[in-house]
From TrEMBL:
First-tier enzyme category under EC: ligase
Highest taxon in the source lineage: Eukaryota
GO molecular function: ATP binding; methionine-tRNA ligase activity
Residue ranges constituting the Methionyl/Leucyl tRNA synthetase domain according to the UniProt record: 15-231
Protein known as: Methionine--tRNA ligase, cytoplasmic
Keyword Zinc: no
InterPro entries from the UniProt entry: aa-tRNA-synth_I_CS (IPR001412), Met-tRNA_ligase_1 (IPR023458), Methionyl/Leucyl_tRNA_Synth (IPR015413), MetRS_core (IPR033911), MetRS_Zn (IPR029038), Rossmann-like_a/b/a_fold (IPR014729)
GO cellular component term, pick one: cytosol
Pfam families named among the record's database cross-references: tRNA-synt_1g
Subcellular location: Cytoplasm
EC number: 6.1.1.10
Reactions the enzyme catalyzes: tRNA(Met) + L-methionine + ATP = L-methionyl-tRNA(Met) + AMP + diphosphate
């Protein structure tokens, strides 16, 4: 359904509430409810009781390697997987009576227009740069391997089933090219290190303006100490 036509009203208390978007590649469990949407739902209900102009939105996060991995495991296309699990998520939250004003999806034409507009404006203003990184490529599959598609021996503790982003045994973060004896999780072939071109947000170019904006916002807004610390 389209977003409700609820816009900020001048002179009123306007509140926008969003929950972290749940990945669509699993069935929500009680921890997801408690850790993600329940506190936001409680606050949304409070705001409505105060007669504040409130909009509570959420939706399934349907992009990323986790979705692709799960689709391969279940023998589905990513689109089929997303369609199945979006319906499951929506049903679970409805059963718990989570009072979203809108529960949507990241795979909508509206979302695509917004994301591409942000990218194009950054590109036009010179805030994107191109650089070369080394990445593992599986020649058998004919694809560069995202972190979740690689496993091997941890270079720190020697655990034989470390992922391309983190070792589950010692907990250390790993760059996939650092793995010993890397294997492609799709075909069990041996990937090779290959240079690849990537686009990056040029943060040093934005740093001065961002710091000035943060100082003004911290002075005028009601930021928690934790939010300030993480942002710094």
């Amino acid at each position: 359904p389209p977003l409700p036509a609820r816009l900020p009203v001048e002179g009123e208390r306007n509140v926008l509430i969003t929950s972290a978007l749940p990945y669509v590649n699993n069935v929500p469990h009680l921890g997801n409810i408690i850790g993600c949407v329940l506190s936001a739902d409680t606050f949304a209900r409070y705001c409505r009781l105060r007669n504040w102009n409130t909009l509570f939105v959420c939706g399934t996060d349907e992009y990323g390697t986790a979705t692709e991995t799960r689709a391969l495991e279940e023998g589905l296309s990513p689109q089929e997987l997303c369609d199945r699990y979006h319906a499951v998520h929506a049903d679970v939250y409805a059963w718990f009576r989570i009072s979203f004003d809108h529960f949507g999806r990241t795979t909508t034409p509206q979302q695509t227009r917004i994301a591409q507009d942000i990218f194009q404006r950054l590109l036009a203003r010179g805030f994107l740069l191109q650089d070369t990184l080394e990445q593992l490529r599986c020649e058998s599959c004919g694809r560069y391997l995202a972190d979740r598609f690689v496993e091997g021996t941890c270079p720190f503790c020697g655990y034989a089933e470390a992922r391309g982003d983190q070792c589950d045994k010692c907990g250390k973060l790993i760059n996939a090219v650092e793995l010993k004896n890397p294997q492609c999780k799709l075909c069990r072939g041996t990937p090779v290190v290959t240079p690849t071109q990537h686009l990056f947000l040029d943060l040093p170019k934005l740093e001065g303006r961002l710091e000035a904006w943060l100082e003004r916002t911290w002075a005028a807004g009601d930021w928690t100490a934790n939010a300030r610390h993480i942002t710094r």
